[in-house]
Structure to design on (522 residues):
């Protein structure tokens, strides 16, 4: 299998729509300032733009910002693989018909001058990683020279309301791994990475994908299933735990899943490298999170540092895990990315500098 | 490149009432905490697998092509609750997420260890399948399209399932 490289990444999210803006917000640990007034559950929410902006205008704004970072145009036949959990539902909440998924693909392809094949993956929080896996596979196997992978999760009330009905949202803020963590804060994001068989600044190793059907919204508490996927990601990249220079965690502030991931780390790493979560600033961007958090992380790594974990303050003695509290230097080397999604999907993958 | 050869195909077209009977016939009862869309997906998948594949424990990947409108009834109910000023019922929200059928699938198919849910028609699957199924020791792929032609009323459910074997 030939190697796959990442050459460009774009991100539109609550932390910003330019690399400089995202880096500043992550370094400063900007807290979410927005709120959603859900029935009986006013909750924090990380808006990427004015919440009053109509849905279609948000999408267009996002595509313009992200597209500007991708060094478009690509070859018109470049395949596009998109991950989303909510599609365009925000545009239909006022009472319109539910949009067909092809509409989302068509909008993006038209904006970015693409005419190749497109697929939409929808597996909750791992949607964009399934898209990433497929794109890596297309390039590895010689079916494509380049591929675009997108994550799209735009403001809507339907998804946060559903999460609120399941008592999954924090009323105050996301506190990843914190002893007082009490739930998620959701956010919106559109992100994209450009993958290629041609050499680029980052090598993307194939994602390891796993499944844990313990419950629709949780995972095996001992962390064993998450650990198995992490170990497979290491094997796919040809790295041992000692080679990993940092771990970008899923850690969202959900009490149970943060704990399971922390236990997984102990199973995989005799001595854990620096770990961090981005959800205290970006919010949990659900179907977009795999690519959004990949893009945001790379924006920091490009300048040689790891972001602090916003929202973390007090170590949980049950977890025994303390993520980054301040900006930390990054010793260039492989970074492991973790993601877990409702419905049981697990994903881990490694990205490392190709220079 | 690995070729995945069709072993066989099933097609199912049921009314809402027929789905409940079909699920009971397949599993002995309804599936706890699964909405009708998930039940239909899993029951038709199980029928296809049982009818087409002789080795139930063979390592398998499942690809499910569906649509937001497949769970249109449940989604519309959630949106209606919001417009009325209330949160959706938790079960209704869970039932409106097509991919959550996967969480039930692992318990029903012994050899299944990965489910990928896509939104849209399965027409281009042959271009994607080698990429998705490239690494694991899967010997079979369970490939399905599940949809409803009447999203607002949700009165009919359709499924096409194929079992493919690694060539």
């Amino acid at each position: 299998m030939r190697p796959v490289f990442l050459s460009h990444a774009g991100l539109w999210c609550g932390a910003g729509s330019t690399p400089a803006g995202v880096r500043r917000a992550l370094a400063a640990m900007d807290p979410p300032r927005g709120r959603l007034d859900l029935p009986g559950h006013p909750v924090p929410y990380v808006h990427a733009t004015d919440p009053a902006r109509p849905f279609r205008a948000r999408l267009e704004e996002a595509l313009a910002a992200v597209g500007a970072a991708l060094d478009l145009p690509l070859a018109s036949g470049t395949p596009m693989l998109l991950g989303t959990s909510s599609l365009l539902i925000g545009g239909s909440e006022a009472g319109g018909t539910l949009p067909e998924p092809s509409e989302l693909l068509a909008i993006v392809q038209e904006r970015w001058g693409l005419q190749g094949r497109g697929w939409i993956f929808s597996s909750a929080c791992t949607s964009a990683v399934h898209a990433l896996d497929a794109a890596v596979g297309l390039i590895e196997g010689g079916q494509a020279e380049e591929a675009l992978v997108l994550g799209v999760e735009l403001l809507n009330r339907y998804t946060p309301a559903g999460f609120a009905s399941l008592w999954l949202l924090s009323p105050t803020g996301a506190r990843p791994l914190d002893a007082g963590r009490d739930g998620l804060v959701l956010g919106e994001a559109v992100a994209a990475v450009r993958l290629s068989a041609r050499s680029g600044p980052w090598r993307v190793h194939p994602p390891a994908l796993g499944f844990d059907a313990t419950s629709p919204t949780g995972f095996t508490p001992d962390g064993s299933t998450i650990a198995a996927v992490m170990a497979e990601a290491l094997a796919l990249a040809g790295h041992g735990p000692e080679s990993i220079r940092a771990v970008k965690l899923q850690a969202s502030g959900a009490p149970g899943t943060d704990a399971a991931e922390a236990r997984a780390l102990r199973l995989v790493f005799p001595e854990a490298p620096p770990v961090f979560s981005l959800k205290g600033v970006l919010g949990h961007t659900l179907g977009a999170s795999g690519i959004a958090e990949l893009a945001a992380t790379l924006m920091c790594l490009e300048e040689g540092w790891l972001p602090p974990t916003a929202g973390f303050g007090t170590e949980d003695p049950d977890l025994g895990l303390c993520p980054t509290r301040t900006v930390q230097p990054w010793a260039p080397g492989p970074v492991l990315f973790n993601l877990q999604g409702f419905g049981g999907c697990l994903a881990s993958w490694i990205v490392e500098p190709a220079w | 490149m690995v070729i995945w050869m069709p072993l066989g195909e099933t097609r199912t077209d049921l009314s809402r009432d027929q789905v409940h009977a079909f699920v009971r016939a397949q599993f002995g009862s309804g599936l706890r905490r699964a909405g009708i869309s998930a039940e239909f997906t899993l029951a038709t998948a199980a029928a296809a697998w049982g009818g087409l594949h002789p080795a139930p424990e063979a390592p398998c990947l499942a690809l499910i092509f569906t649509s937001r409108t497949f769970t249109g009834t449940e989604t519309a109910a959630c949106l209606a609750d919001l417009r009325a000023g209330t949160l959706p019922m938790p079960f209704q929200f869970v039932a409106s997420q097509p991919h959550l059928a996967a969480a039930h699938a692992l318990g029903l198919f012994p050899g299944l260890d990965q489910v990928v849910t896509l939104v849209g028609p399965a027409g281009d699957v042959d271009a994607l399948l080698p990429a998705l199924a490239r690494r694991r020791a899967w010997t079979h792929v369970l490939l399905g399209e599940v949809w409803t032609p009447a999203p607002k009323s949700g009165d009919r459910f359709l499924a096409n399932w194929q079992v493919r074997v690694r060539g």
Observations:
- Chain B has one domain: 4-47+59-166.
- Chain B touches chain A through 49 residues (CB under 8 Å).
